[in-house]
Write a structure and sequence with these properties.
Elements: E1 2-6, E2 15-19, H1 35-44, H2 48-101, H3 105-146
Antiparallel strand pairs: 1-2
Helix pairs in contact: 2-3
Amino acid sequence: MAKEIIKGPGAAHPVPRQQSSIVTTQTKTTLYPFAEDLEAYNRAIPNGAERLFNNFDNQANHRIAIESRVVDSNIRQAERGQLFGFLTIIIALLVALWAAYIGHEKLAIAIVGVVLTGGFSVFITGKIQQREDLKRKKEAARKAGAE
């Protein structure tokens, strides 16, 4: 509070006068502006509130389209990875069969061992990573729900 001393022709003694001010704040939990703000937009810009909401809608549609592209791309990439992995295993097994056919049984066993070990390790590592990702997502969703 600020104090001001009033002096003037009618004041025999200086009298302190106090001033006070009130500050108000508004808090919102949505992305959308308050109704009073929308009315102010409409006064400042013709159809300002409508234009603002159109921008919100356009941005949301753009974000959804990008997320859809990312998801589709990730699915195609996973399918290609599975196909290439399968083809690699088939080719390696054919090479192992050929090596056994021409009399290199130890080489054939080594190739099959490497292929099976590699294939299983990639599969198991992928499953572990999937479980960890799912666990993280569930935890994030639980925390978001608690807030």
